[in-house]
Known about the structure:
The chain is 4% helix and 58% strand. It is mainly β. The chain starts with a helix and ends with a strand.
Amino acid sequence: MQxxxxxxxxxxxxxxxxxxxxxxxxxxxVIISGNKxxxxxxxxxxxxxxxxxxxxxxxxxxxxxxxxxxxxFIKSYGISGSATPSFRGTGAGHTQLQxxxxxxxxxxxxxxxxxxxxxxxxxxxxxxxxxxxxxxxTGGIGGIVNLENKPLWRNGSIxxxxxxxxSFGRYSGLLKVRTGNLNFQSSTKAYLSVAENNFKYINxxxxxxxxxxxxxxxxxxxKGFLQEFYYKKSKDILSARLWYQFADRNLPFSMLMPRSSxxxxxxxxxxxxxxxxxxHIGVSEFFVxxxxxxxxxxxxxxxxxxxxxxxxxxxxxxxxxxxxxxDYVKTKFILENEHIQVRTExxxxxxxxxxxxxxxxxxxxxxxxxxxxxxxLKEVLNGNSFLIPDxxxxxxxxxxxxxxxxxxANFSRNSKLPSMNDLFWVPGGNSELLDxxxxxxELTYEMAHQFSIPFKSKFDVTLYHNSIHNLIQWRxxxxxxxxxxxxxxxxxxxxxxxxxxxxxxxxxxxxxxxAYTYTNATTIGSVLPNDESLGKQLVYVPEHQANAMMRFxxxxxxxxxxxxxxxxxxxxxxxSSFLPGFVLHSLSxxxxxxxxxxxxxxxxxxxxxxxxxxxxxxxxxxxxRTYSLKLLIQITK
Length: 637
């Protein structure tokens, strides 16, 4: 659903169907083109970012989308550098990135680079927190970000073109073509993005007096396409997807480095394909998914004389079966296998293999309309070794019948295997590493209330606590290189809260979204003598984050105001050095013109409205005030 769909939906109050014993009114077939929301596990927290929000980020990466629409902290190395997520104080390796429930984390690093994922190719993003991640993956101690692609079962075609232009030599374009009928659908998406990224910044570390410099060696180019086919017959759906992307980025130098013509460059190329079959038989459902992923990463650092070429392949198989027992119990079983092969000159044998299998069993209980529970058990086989089983248990209670007032609680054990680099990198890899494990406790309160016909609100608050054992860390060894070891125990705890207020009249729609996150992440145990990090906040984990958004729509004109606060982040383990907090504002306004089923949408955006100077990572400056123009042309046949 494009941005137009949002305006149509929020401007028209929905009326339930009225039935009469005396009259029957026959109406023409109505096709609902929105995607069915994913089913939430009872007692667990999940967040869905749907297609109505995605259009606003069609020319940006998933990193920007998550930064402004979730409590996930994004650790960015600059406008053309990598961007990695941090869930609830955990590291990037504790976040699993999935594509339609298949893991696509880099096998070597064991973590995702969100700057490489264009939001314009994705239909929905589902975020699963803590123990709920066990239901679809392994290793998501912090959580899982699942990128969804779904069909629109309708007759006809939709063609949309979204060109954009922005400051610092940025140009992008996104083309989407959807066509088909109620039984067959094809979706084609292609994008191209280039940027000079030659913004100016203040360098106050190289010389005694601050000087203004222009960013160099920061050019980037990304391109790719995603092709989807869906076929539906009765209760069976067969789908095939193919996703290719390529990125060529000059990585920006740290402000500590002397300006040089010698560049640092990284080329990322990936090819992913997926085949999926879903079926319903009576009260039972089952699915089978097969996927193949090929990733290449070439890194060149002319100054350090490094030319590193890496290739990884993964083959995944996943099958699940769901069955209902009576009116109150639903069981589900998922079998998954992932086979990984890495080829790189940075490993001792120039290659490494890994095979991981898992079996997940789940039971969901709805004893009444107000009480529900979920129990999950996962057994993981790593090569020939079984891990200690992971588990989750959640309880949910609907406090009142009239409105949605929910109380959720869950407890889980989750584990994460070391990455391939942790095990096999030369020098420093450690094949004797133990898997990390975490115990998670979570309590959530949610409410949704319709105060009157034009005014409604939603609110949720979550308290959580993670105890992570055997945390893997790379540290200086007894020789001249760094080594991977299980060195620490870490506790992370905090509060996540969000509020939504919406007011709708015949001509005006407005809403406000507010969110706040508090994260306390400290080291509580260490094998290192005199470890200065004990009792201190983990590096690059802000204690406080907040964001707000206000939207106002009048007829065909709309305007958005967004603001976000990121608190202090420590850059040393003893918390002696830190980056100050910063506040960013953005303003956008646009006009949408409808002609029958066709749409023309023009939008102008100003990011970092007050030209704030800030750094997400020490000595990697971010751009100041940025302007962009975006156009949507959508033709429906």
